[in-house]
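Let us walk through a complete example step by step. Step one is to write down the protein sequence. Step two is to encode the small molecule, NAP, as a SMILES string so that its atoms and bonds are unambiguous. Step three, shown after the inputs, is the structure prediction itself.
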Amino acid sequence: MSVLKIALLGFGTVGEGVYRSIESHGERLEKILGKRVEIVAILVRNKQKQRKISGNILVTDNFEEIINLPHIDYMIEAIVGREPAFTYLKRAVEKGSNIITANKEMFAYHGEELSLLAADKGVSLGYEATVGGGIPIIQTLRQLLKVNNIKKIKGILNGTSNFILTEMREKKEPFASVLKTAQEKGYAEADPGNDVEGTDAFYKLMVLSKLAFGFQPEWKDVHVEGITSITREWIEEADLLHLKFKHIASVEWKDGKVIASVQPVLVGKSSPFYDVEGVENAVSIEADLVGSITLRGPGAGMFPTASAVIEDLAQSRHQTDREAGSPIRDSVDQDSQKEASYWLLDRVKKKVADPSIEWLQQHPNNKWIIKSSVKGLNRILDQNPGTEAFPVLAEMIEKESSDLFTASL
Ligand SMILES: NC(=O)c1ccc[n+]([C@@H]2O[C@H](COP(=O)([O-])OP(=O)(O)OC[C@H]3O[C@@H](n4cnc5c(N)ncnc54)[C@H](OP(=O)(O)O)[C@@H]3O)[C@@H](O)[C@H]2O)c1
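Step three: the predicted structure of the complex.
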């Protein structure tokens, strides 16, 4: 059974969730992917922190140690903020790794560039976890987009804001004390700015806009308003009218333009958002053929978000290693190839010094015959983008003279 090697960037709520889910759902993934999924490296900021991680996994605070590993099939990123996440993923793609990210801020800024680069390099890019936690909104949109034209997307995209509005109404408490509860329960960050001021929902909306309409509106033209100005009194007034404040992110295609906003709005009982309470998220899609669809579910948290990441992994099963890089990676069972074997390499620019690689014969146009394990071979391929490798039957090298072999090139 060959192995699918994964590097995890980040071991916080999401990263650890992914780790535990791969542990608990490993067999299922193996059936889907046809390969045993193995986490080989984890990037963290603080290496000294005690974590429950298997001893044979490289845990490092130095990305160079990960990017320099001979071969990583998937780089899964769950760190925070635009940088260094973007640079890390760019380097991973350039090296031929498939990537999956949960980082909506980074993806709202750099999604397009990463998508183009991934397409150029033939690797897959998953970003289901950037929007709506465990709700499969990206997959649903992709499916609908095959035939439908999307007209409008509206959603409660930030669970913290929805939790605060719900608690303010149900407990009749002011914003500040509910925010404290949200922080105690782990729903809100110590710095809750991104959540309560609408920035988090805005990033998610921009990710949806790009997918649904092909581009994002000018960011400066988007009205972004959080929930900090909503008072308990306003909520009570609304309640008397059977209305509720909901923090709604909305994007629509209108007269050839994409129009977006993020703001608290009042909704009535007929709205699909009326009953969405607490940390739940909901997204409503309006499309020309299907009409209106609403998805709702856990918008954040360790396992719902890990679920989205793992779904990306499972979905990309048709994205073979052949598409992702060198042809050889698809066809070789790495476990069964610990023994050195012979390879013909084409267009080698840089010889890699490694005791497990024997550089046997050089031929015109930087062709080489080598004897190497798959591990050694992958090291060469990683350092020589564009180089192709073809297995050579050992008997041919061993039985026939090198001249004969040269003639057949
Ligand atoms: N939490 C959710 O429910 C959720 C849902 C959807 C999407 N997301 C997104 O997923 C990402 C991760 O969120 P999270 O809640 O898991 O964050 P978190 O709990 O704060 O964990 C972040 C992890 O990344 C590591 N890290 C941060 N900056 C780093 C750097 N510069 N270099 C190396 N490692 C670094 C941290 O290392 P240490 O452990 O050493 O500090 C930690 O392990 C974010 O982009 C977030 O927006 C989160």
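Step four is interpretation. Residues 10-15, 43-46, 49, 78-80, 84, 102-104, 129, 133, 300-301, 305 surround NAP (CB under 6 Å).
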